[in-house]
Specification:
The structure is a single chain. This protein has 342 residues and is of the alpha+beta class. It folds into two domains: 193 residues, Jelly Rolls, CATH 2.60.120; 107 residues, Orthogonal Bundle (Arc Repressor Mutant, subunit A). Helices cover 36% and strands 20% of the residues. The chain is built from eleven helices and eleven strands. Strand 3 and strand 4 form a beta hairpin. Helix 3 packs antiparallel against helix 4 and helix 6 crosses helix 7. The N terminus and C terminus are likely disordered.
């Protein structure tokens, strides 16, 4: 079974029930293809088929639990007319067996009971259920997953379900998740999805691929453009990406591959610029609040906290390094203290 592209508003289920042979297969094919356009489904000619499934949304994700007979599902890479289906799904085999290969057929991975794998829908795949199988599918929108890890495709079709403790923990979580248990868990649906995604990333131990030469030049260009705009209070990843003619996803991916992020880079630039203004005599008449605003901060208090975190002392002490010394116990003579004379 493959996951449907649109999350329903509530849980629902369907089954082949008392249908037999051709009727059961036709019902299942139409039901799945209505949920997952562009998916091709084949059944053994001589064998009967039974299937039952239940679905429930989990925040941005969708959980699909099913018991199915032998059949094969094929999706071509970016099926014509269905480019809008752009997600990833975790396939977990609770009982039985399944095998999956990439759209190119270059890699085939067999999943037995208690094993899982991440699949990129747009890349295409061939998924075969080799026996009566109980399985679960959990979909994640690409944009949502990319916001948590910039290169989810690097985790797809990797046999990592037994590679470490995080992977085994994810197996345990997937085993417990079901349309029946989700409504009774002490976490919100969005929190459940976040926890599953976090375990997936930990299990993969993902390291972003290194930047290529052209990408390095792009990152350098982006950094210079950020320096030119750091004073702009409205500068966000979305606004900046639009200004630079790239997608927000590409922006995040480029900085992630550099070992940082857009937000971290912009914050570091603003703080360094503020520090340069505080040490510049030409700006000594500017207040801390004005320096904060010139550096792109909207809240002087937030600026002060960030400055202390970065440089170990508040902006006022950076401008006047001696202001933190303990004052003398007595006023100096210049303030009018008299000396007794004969």
């Amino acid at each position: 079974m493959a996951p449907p592209p649109y999350a329903p508003n509530a849980a629902f289920s369907f089954t082949t029930g008392e249908l037999k042979f051709a009727e059961a297969k036709s019902f299942w094919r139409k039901k799945i293809q209505s949920l997952r356009p562009g998916l091709h489904i084949d059944f053994p000619t001589q064998a009967d088929f039974t299937g039952s499934a239940s679905l429930i949304p989990i925040g941005p994700a969708l959980l699909f639990s099913m018991t199915v007979g032998i059949h094969t599902l094929t999706r071509q890479k970016r099926s014509p007319g269905y480019e809008h289906i752009d997600d990833f799904f975790l396939l977990y085999v609770a009982k039985g067996a399944a095998s999956i290969s990439s759209g190119r057929g270059s890699t085939t991975i067999t999943l037995n009971s208690g094993q899982w794998i991440l699949v990129e829908t747009a890349a295409g795949y061939l998924l075969r259920y080799d026996s009566i199988t109980q399985a679960k599918v959990l979909t994640f929108p690409r944009a949502w997953l990319t916001a948590r890890t910039p290169f989810p495709e690097e985790m797809a079709l990797k046999p990592i379900c037994d590679s470490n403790g995080w992977a085994r923990a994810l197996c345990c979580v997937l085993a417990e998740l079901s349309p029946e248990t989700v409504p009774h868990l002490p976490l919100t649906p969005g929190e459940i999805a976040d926890q599953v995604a976090a375990l997936l990333i930990l299990a993969a131990g993902q390291i972003s691929p290194p930047l290529r030469t052209g990408q390095k030049a792009t990152v350098n260009r982006l950094r210079q453009a950020m320096r030119d705009r750091l004073h702009d209070h409205t500068l966000t990843p979305t606004v900046f990406a639009d200004q630079q003619g790239i997608s927000k996803r590409t922006l995040h991916a480029l900085f992630a591959a550099s070992g940082t992020s857009f937000s971290k880079e912009l914050m570091a630039m603003r703080l360094e610029f503020a520090r340069s203004l505080l040490s510049n005599p030409n700006f000594r008449n500017k207040s801390i609040a004005e320096i904060s605003s010139l550096s792109g901060f909207t809240n002087p208090g937030h600026f002060g906290k960030r400055f202390v975190d970065a440089f170990g002392r508040p902006p006022s002490r950076y401008r006047h390094p001696n202001s933190g010394r303990t004052p003398p116990r007595h006023p100096p003579l210049s303030l009018g203290r008299r000396i007794a004379t004969d």
